[in-house]
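Work Package 4 report. The design task specified in the project plan requires that, given a folded chain encoded as structure tokens, an amino acid be chosen for each position. We show below one input record used in the internal validation round.
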């Protein structure tokens, strides 16, 4: 179960959402280097597809139809390599596939050097550049393979998997029993969880979830309750085979001064597509902290007024849940 459509859960510092970041520079972090190579591949591939003749002239080969088609095909290969690298947490395989592509590129440049019409200085410079990238690809692939092997032995791979953690809370003007009862009927959750499409209750412990993901896709998973304290706490986790592996909890605590209930949500999840999925979500303004904060504001409105109150303030891209006045009830 998850309060954001794609999310999962775990304790963290108050009002914190974070992705684990490497502690070392890119030369000591093959995963970061691989991500750089992935974006480089995509950028190069887009240039080769958009302007194949211009790229051919830049590297000193004739811009005839044959070279144009070759450049276009290489561009497609580069984009596929980049997507393959960025869509994996440990992309040793896609990086080594890049090495294979580099070898093909070097062979093509060698043939161009032996032909009658190349601009040899440009071809030689392009060959040197490809050689440099090949060495970088090989070093990165070797380090990724070594870390994967070590991870399999020690469990480090699981520890370093891209994971997002969120903790948010809000004060709702209803008694804990009332808020708990509403949340515990999981089919109510799509009423205030913006990206959640549907929840189907299977039995007293299990339920099936369907949520919207980036680029118009959907993700689904089964979840089970692992702890349920009426009017106090619900803890859940996704089951094997989930599109979005996640765990989480929601706690219902009487607010000071008889102001209602403090609802505290803690989430940990592995985003769709690993690091790439998290990056895409962030680029489109769907950070997990934003999602959970908005969901909790909508929960407050549903519990206090019976419906979500929308605002069209110009600082937002579209309609959004209006924030309550003052600081009470804001997610932290």
């Amino acid at each position: 179960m998850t309060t954001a459509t794609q999310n999962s859960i775990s304790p963290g510092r108050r009002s914190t959402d974070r992705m684990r970041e490497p502690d070392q520079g890119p030369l000591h972090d093959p995963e970061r280097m691989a991500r750089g190579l992935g974006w480089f591949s995509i950028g190069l591939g887009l240039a080769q597809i958009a302007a194949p003749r211009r790229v051919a002239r830049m590297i000193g080969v004739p811009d005839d139809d044959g070279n144009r088609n070759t450049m276009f095909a290489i561009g497609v290969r580069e984009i596929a390599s980049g997507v393959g690298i960025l869509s994996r947490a440990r992309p040793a395989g896609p990086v080594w596939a890049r090495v294979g592509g580099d070898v093909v590129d070097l062979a093509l440049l060698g043939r161009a050097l032996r032909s009658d019409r190349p601009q040899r200085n440009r071809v030689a410079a392009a060959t040197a550049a490809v050689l440099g990238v090949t060495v970088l690809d090989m070093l990165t692939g070797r380090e990724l393979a070594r870390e994967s092997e070590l991870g399999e032995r020690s469990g480090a791979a699981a520890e370093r998997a891209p994971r997002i953690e969120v903790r948010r809370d809000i004060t709702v003007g209803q008694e804990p029993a009332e808020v708990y009862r509403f949340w515990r009927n999981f089919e109510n959750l799509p009423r205030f969880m913006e990206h959640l499409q549907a929840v189907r209750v299977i039995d007293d412990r299990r339920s099936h979830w369907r949520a919207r993901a980036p680029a118009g896709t959907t993700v689904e998973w089964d979840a089970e309750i692992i702890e349920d304290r009426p009017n106090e706490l619900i803890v859940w986790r996704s089951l094997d085979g989930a599109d979005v592996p996640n765990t989480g909890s929601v706690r219902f605590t009487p607010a000071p001064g008889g102001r209602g209930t403090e609802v505290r949500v803690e989430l940990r999840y592995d985003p769709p597509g690993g690091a790439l999925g998290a990056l895409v979500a962030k680029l489109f303004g769907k950070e997990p902290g934003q999602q959970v904060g908005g969901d909790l504001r909508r929960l407050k409105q549903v519990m206090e007024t019976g419906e979500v109150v929308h605002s069209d303030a110009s600082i937002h891209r579209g309609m959004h849940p209006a924030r309550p006045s003052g600081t009470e009830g804001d997610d932290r």
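Residues 311 and 322 are 5 Å apart (CA to CA). Validation will be extended to a larger panel in the next phase.
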